[in-house]
Here is the input.
Amino acid sequence: MIELILYYIGLGFCYLGSLFLIFGGIGLVRMPDVYNRMQASTKTTTLGLMSIVLGVGLMQPLWIIKAIVIIIFIAMTAPVGASAMARASYKSGIPLYKGSVIDQCDAPSCKKEVKE
Amino acid sequence: MNFYIFVSLITMLAIATFLALYRLLKGPTAADRMVALDAITNTTAGVLLIIALVSQRFIYMDVTLVYAILSFVGVIVVARYLEGGL
Amino acid sequence: MQESKGGKDSFAFVSIITFVTWIALTLSPGMSLIDFYQEVFVGIIVAITVAALTYKHLPNASVRYFHPRRFGYLFVYVFVFLWAMIKANFNMARIVLSPKLPIRPGIVRITTNLKPNVAKLMLGNSITLTPGTMTMEVDGNSLYIHWVQVCEDLSQAGNIIKGSFEKWLGGVFS
Here is the structure.
């Protein structure tokens, strides 16, 4: 009985995760510049993947330890990758979306390299 | 696992992959392509997990973990390259 | 923070972390008991080898990090973080699905008073996964944040972005 309940909860998590991955894809297509795309894509795909992993761990209760290891790993690495990508785009001189209101970035390590 | 559940999950993941693939092919700059590639690798990890569930094999969980590690390393390498530090 | 200069403290810290990671990675369902003992045995050997090779390079690591009070703060922090992450995703889904794209992006600079580098790293990671914000660069004690919906009053930006993360992380790394 309890296994059946866990099975359906896990299935719900799998569908939720897939839905968030689709939202990430839509954001990737619709957003106007690379920084906003990055926000939409990294946040939603991170939670979507974590949700699918958790769902699989609940549907097969013996796999839950490896599922938790994968979740911790994703939660630690995904934001680091996102920050690295954002800084790389800023340094390689990609301009902000023209509707942007403010740009306070003056750190010496992210000076824009002016390209001809 | 029910056949229809499997097909619906894989279809949703395929839609997500195609949306990211549009950005990967069209993206005006290299950074756009990098972001799209990151989204595609995350979706592929999800597909691997669904395959693990269908085939009832634990080894695909390890495959997913290694795949996630390699995608992270790939993103960092491309980011370093765009920064000009490689 | 109490500084310790390498030695036994960091050796014990590195070997415990390595051993726990090894066990978490090699446990698999359907493992026989003899296989489990084998993994524990190999894990101890690997942990001691890795610690002997690397403890000199981690002079600040110490077993004093395993204080129960820190685990209490970490526990609360994980739940605050998960809640913020779920909120962030529904917020992002709402922005993406609304037909007019209500975005007002910009880069703002906020300051933090956390001192250790690991604490700054975790604050940056938390900010990246919370509603509409993404850390771009950490430089000294200022963080550069890309924000999808910049608020009107910039003097409040730090409080809105950091939320209660700084308090809990300050407890974890005090």
